[in-house]
Amino acid sequence: MEKQNSVAKVLRVIGIIIMIGGFFLALTTGSSQNLGMALPVLFSSFVTGMLFIGFSEVIALLQKIHFQLYQDGSKATASSSNEPEVDQPQEQKEWQPSPQDLEDIQELYQDQKVTKIEASPYEDYCVVQIEGKDHIEVVELGGFKPKKVTAASKPDLVNNIQKWFKNLTPS
């Protein structure tokens, strides 16, 4: 059973009434005056009515999305209620950063010399090794611009990637 949104219903009805009313207003204007006066009335009422109908559709769509997220969220929390809620990325086997990602990482470290950029097994996370530094830095590529990930913000992820990188490179 799907719940109807009353605001969306009212906006849809208002849009239809505006369109029908504009049609009749254009008919009466066209019969009493010239046709040049009736066309703008007909066009403007049609556009205004369609705007109201469009807003009602947007509201109905947003409500469906809200209900779907609410139902999916309650199922997910019910199934994993004993697990801590951590935003942990899924481990992937093979992925490579795009050339644009590599350029963005170089811009992020423009004042330092980057010796190595390696894709980690976690999608959208890269390992950056800087010349003259013993440690590595983790960079997230998932947003508009790459950003450094610190051990304070995501300790498990950074530790896992550091362990992976130590096993990858010979000491």
UniProtKB/TrEMBL annotation:
Keywords: Membrane, Transmembrane, Transmembrane helix. It comes from the Bacteria. The chain crosses the membrane at residues 7-27, 39-62. Residues 75-102 are annotated as: Disordered. This is Uncharacterized protein.
